[in-house]
Amino acid sequence: HALNAEELKMSLLRQCQYLQPWCQSNNHRANHAIRSIFAHNAGIQLKVDHQHHQTRAVTESSFGTRRRRRRRRHLPPQPLKPTMQSLGRRALFGERRFGFSTHSSVQYKKIRKTRKELVKMNKIQTIGEASNTAFKYLHEFNPRNYSSFWSRVSRLATERWTKHNVANRELTGSQRNVLTHQLTSIFSNTRGAVTQFGPRDLTQTAHAIAKIVKMVNVRVSQGRRLDRMQQVFRYIIIGRQSSPREDDDDDDGDIFQSIANTSLGILPEFEARYLSNLAYANAIASSVPTFDDGSTLFDHIAEKSIPLLTEFQPQELANLVWSFEKAGASNAGLFEKVADHIVSLDNIAEFKPLELSNILSAYAKADQANPPLFQKVANYIVSLDNLHTFRPEDLSNVVHALATADEAHPRLFEKVSNRIITLGNLKSFKPHQLSHVLWAFSKAGESNPKLHVRIADHIYLFCKLELFEPSDLSAVLLALGTVEGSHHRTRFLFQKVADHMVESDEFDSFEPREISDVLEAYATADVVHPRLFARLHAHVNAHVDSTSLGENARRNLVWAHEKAEQV
């Protein structure tokens, strides 16, 4: 150890050259001979196990007791290439298989067990088991372990309730207390360790936690009961988003703000997919992190993404613009550059139907209409042989986006209507998707009586009106009001909706605009329902300022009142 690095390297090369002829037939002994030279200089004793081709280092702890170490399990020896490069690398750095290591066998046994447990994280079937494993080895966690843990937990928490995952839903009181304690420690450690994360681990952790936040928020907004597992997540994650706990070391209780602060410093290292995933995670969690200078994380993502647009995959482009619109962080410069990039492509066949519909929907909702982009996508959809790959959500989003952006394309509307009419049934359409289709055709002036009657039949015969939001019901009625009222299904549907509104306990949730649309629909279709008109008139007099209603709505209200009195 009196040699410096350069002299050590030259000495190794000279000894390798001297031993190379003998190494051709004695690779293992040659490797041991070369390593013995440096081990002698370093004061390390070596033992040779010729039967297993291993060289064992005797550490200071074994000098006194002279106990023979337990032999570790190892792979069969692989044939070595008798080159100076391989021999020199093994002599300088050593390998675990040859026993030249700074760890004792007990330490290696513990490390192997820890790694084995963590590697199996993606095979764990319950959140409790994942929490126990992570809490047990929390002091040895690295960024990849944190991201893997939260990814697995989010997947288990958001999967559909089946007989195989009952343990993830039903918890006893003691199990909930243990799980709360463990997840609280893991969550706090995660928030404190994000400063050491790289782009991949940051985005993976943010996306996993965002999925949990979205799941809980959706159930709460729908008035649905949270099971005990979801209550634990709401207490640990959602509660810490709104206000920090007293026992938190960090004053900032928002995990997404912590991730944003770390991401800002290493944003130049982010690839295109990581930028898209980071924006998507914050969007589904309804989080818009801000910085001291007043800028937001989305501003920095847009600035970084524009030069890298050619590196974005179709799904990443769709997620990027969708995330900006969803978070309410619309960036005109980014939307313009993305539209120009898509229009400049020779072929957009790589874009899936969901990606095309999400892009158009994002531009329409963000009020960033781009006629060349809309026309290019519409022309591509029309050029397809069929629309079998388009789901109900894709069909409704495409026509709704075109109608919202006031982009006329009769051939596209005709192709979409033919696809819906020829379907065996419309049970795959959700209530809001049916209302979007009807509203889009009415708004675009693309009247199609067959389509209107087909949807009216389906709603009348198969749909539960309780699943329709007030805005959806008013849109359906307003669109069907333009259809000839002689069709018995259409008139029966008006009667069914009126009976539902009269008996509904949520009548007060109708906004003045929705009341106006309902009155206009009944007046246009010339359908009279005295009880509905009487309740509408009483509701308007008691709860609605007449000035908030337009002239047309007031005229329809007078018409409805007169019709009700006549009956």
Task: Sum this structure up briefly.
The chain has 567 residues and is mostly helical.
Question: Which terms would index this structure?
Answer:
about 575 residues, mainly alpha, two-stranded antiparallel sheet, 26 helices, 2 strands, about 65% helix, globular
Detailed description of the structure:
- The protein is mainly alpha-helical and 567 residues long.
- 63% of the residues lie in helices and 2% in strands.
- The chain has 26 helices and 2 strands.
- Strands 1-2 form a two-stranded antiparallel sheet.
- Mean pLDDT is 78; it is low at 44-75, 77-103 and 241-252.
Task: Please describe the biggest sheet, giving its number of strands, its sense, and whether it closes into a barrel.
Answer: 2 strands, antiparallel
Round the Cα radius of gyration to an integer and report it: 34 Å
Helix content: 55-70%
Overall structural class, as computed from helix and strand content, comes to mainly alpha
Main β-sheet, spatial strand arrangement: 1-2
In sequence order, what are the helices and strands, one letter per element? Answer: HHEEHHHHHHHHHHHHHHHHHHHHHHHH
What is the end-to-end distance?
109 Å
Number of helices: 26
What number is the mean pLDDT? 78
Strand content: under 5%
